[in-house]
Amino acid sequence: MTAKDDIAIEAHDLWKSFDDGRIPVIRGVDLRIARGEMTALWGTSGSGKSTLLHLLSGLDVPDRGTVSILGCDPTKEADRLELRRRHVGFVFQLHNLIADLTVEENLMIPALACGQSHRDAKERLRHLAKDVGLSHRLNHRIQDLSGGERQRTAICRALINKPKLVFADEPTGSLDEETGETVFQLLVRLVAQEGASVILATHERRLLKSCHRVLHIQQGTALACEGAI
Amino acid sequence: MTGITKLALVNIRRHKIRAFISVAGIGFGVAAMLTIVSVVLGAIGMFQNILATESNEVVFERNVSDLFFSSVPMEQIRRLRALPEVECVNPMLVGIVSSKEHPIITCFGVERTDPRLAHAKWISGTRQDFTDDSKQIFLGARAAEFLKASIGQRIHIGKGEFEIGGILRTKNGFEDGGVFMPLALAQDYFHREGLASIATIKLKREGASASFKTAVDRGFPALIALDDKEFNQSYSQFRILKLTGWAVGICSFLLGGMGVANTMLMSVFTRIREIAVLRVCGFSRKQVAGLVLGEAAILAAAGTVAGFVLGLLALQALNAAPQLQGYVQAVVRPDILLAITSIAFMTAILGSLYPAWFASHVQPAEALRFE
Question: What integer pLDDT is reported at residue A114 of this predicted model?
Fold first, then answer.
């Protein structure tokens, strides 16, 4: 049994459906994710892994059941805001950066949201940008970057406020295999470096070898809970 | 520049045409309001100046809707002059005449001692030429310009033909674009023998206003005496003019406000994903709403500046237009500029309230579900 303080996320009896209940997606998921772990939600397209990731991260609310993230209740706006500002980072399949802003301006957004000092935020983003090889791109607009560079920028944005948890939804899904592997290894290295936990939703089996735990999601249920494979 | 302002500017830059239409909407509203209100206030100011030249009180017929319809008998003017509080009384008969191509020319029938004549700068002729029994008329400088008339020339005014006895320049656009004539001649011409429209009264001392009004109330039941301030506040024509000016201005603002509302709604609808990302990055509902309202405020600021420039240019053009005979003497007051700016911002903010509310309630998961 994991000690309470070691638990990053605890979910109990999660249910989620769409279209007024006509499309059930998540059916009674119970799980605990320990701090410092890299956990994969693995399944085919439509299995419900992204929806589960959204529920576990507080991006969406379950129809039934409870989620606790680092002891906070993500259904409460104040808790959710605190989590997003201080403790949680997100990486999406389509990077979701603001195309008209530069790399630096995109990376400043989380700092702007939480009122972090401009100087500290700049120092941090320069450090991260150097780490991911984007120093020379800081003043370039997102629309001028390659897919890999965009995803590296998105990873930096997720880590800018030194989160304890990073949620990554198909982070390599829009990249070719080689770039995807490079970006994923970068994510793995950085979160290890920062001491953060990662919850990764993916359909790519090759990414699982870097994870401590794999939850196989099928038809909205966590079927198997495996160690590293 | 703060980060949120920068984000707001980025979005405005992104949709230049849409932003331009909004700015133009607010700008036209501001320009319309500035032009109308300034012209109306200018007109009221000019009218007030006519009545307030070297006087403290205005006496006119009780319960008339317009001073043009007021009749103050000359016999009562003589009795007013006899009151102990009074230093001097200046009767004036106001009428409207027309000439070829100029449908409205204001005509002022005054006595030779009238202070308006004393304060004017005589361009042709002298003040001494203006006698009470003269059959000549005296043109304001602007009237002489648009009538292309000069001293000694005979011109048609309405149904009469008069010789020009002099040309005088005054600081008042109404007077400058009008015709002065001896009171007796005006009474004869307008078929209002023995009558004046109003009498402006100079008191021996300012504190005598109350006793003067009481004396008028008791001795002249058909007349009313108001001091200049009371008159300005109570004269219904002024109130109607002011109200009309503001009403027309506000209507044009409503249109501008709808433009801003439309722009902001479109702006929010087309970047729901982006707003969702901001929420995911820790933006609070207030910050998201602030971003939308900030954009609206920037549009309002740009529209206000553009509107002021446009409005001032329009006022200059109106002032210079020969067809208006110098009747436009716009008054641009700081409090009016402030009021218009406030209305512009209020309109933009009100128009953005729903878009801001909508944006602040975007559900990130829903917005990001379909990558």
Answer: 86
Across the 371 residues of chain B, what is the mean pLDDT of every consecutive 10-residue run?
Answer: 76 84 88 86 76 80 84 94 92 84 83 90 92 93 87 87 92 85 94 93 87 92 86 72 82 79 84 90 92 91 94 87 67 87 89 92 81 48
Pick the residue of A59, A88, A120 with the most B CBs within 10 A to test the interface with B by mutation.
A59
Chain A interface, best mutation among B273, B281, B363, by max A CB count within 10 A: B281
Using a CB–CB cutoff of 8 Å, tell me whether B285 touches chain A.
yes
Please give the pLDDT value at position B366: 81
Residue B285 vs residues A78, A86, B290, B299: alpha-carbon distances, Å: 11, 17, 8, 21
CATH assignment at residue A219: 3.40.50.300
Average pLDDT of the residues of chain A: 86
Domain count within chain A: 1
Nearest neighbour of A94 by CB, restricted to B6, B284, B371: B371
Q: Which of B280, B291, B361 to mutate to test the interface with A (most CBs of A within 10 A)?
A: B280
How close A59 comes to chain B (CA, Å)?
Answer: 5
Residues B287, A94: C-beta atoms closer than 8 Å: no
B196: Cα separation from own chain's centroid: 27
Considering only CA atoms, which of B42, B21, B44, B38 is closest in space to residue B314? Answer: B38
| Three-class secondary structure assignment of chain B | CCHHHHHHHHHHHHCHHHHHHHHHHHHHHHHHHHHHHHHHHHHHHHHHHHHHCCCCEEEEECCCCCHHHCCEEHHHHHHHHCCCCEEEEEEEEEEEEEECCEEEEEEEEECCCCHHHHHCEEEECCHHHCCCCCCCEEEEHHHHHHHCCCCCCEEEECCEEEEEEEEEECCCHHHHCCEEEEHHHHHHHCCCCCEECEEEEEECCHHHHHHHHHHHHHHCCCEEEEEHHHHHHHCHHHHHHHHHHHHHHHHHHHHHHHHHHHHHHHHHHCCHHHHHHHHHCCCCHHHHHHHHHHHHHHHHHHHHHHHHHHHHHHHHHHHHCHHHCCCCCCCCCHHHHHHHHHHHHHHHHHHHHHHHHHHHCCCHHHHHCCC
Residue A116 C-alpha, separation from nearest chain B C-alpha, in angstroms:
12
pTM beyond 0.80: no
Residues of A with CB under 8 A from a CB of B: 50, 54, 59-60, 77, 81, 84-85, 90, 92-94, 96-98, 100-101, 105, 108-110, 112-114, 157, 161, 170, 173
pLDDT digits 0-9 by tens, A177-219: 888 888 888 888 878 887 888 999 998 888 888 888 898 888 7
Give the domain extent around A222.
Answer: 4-226
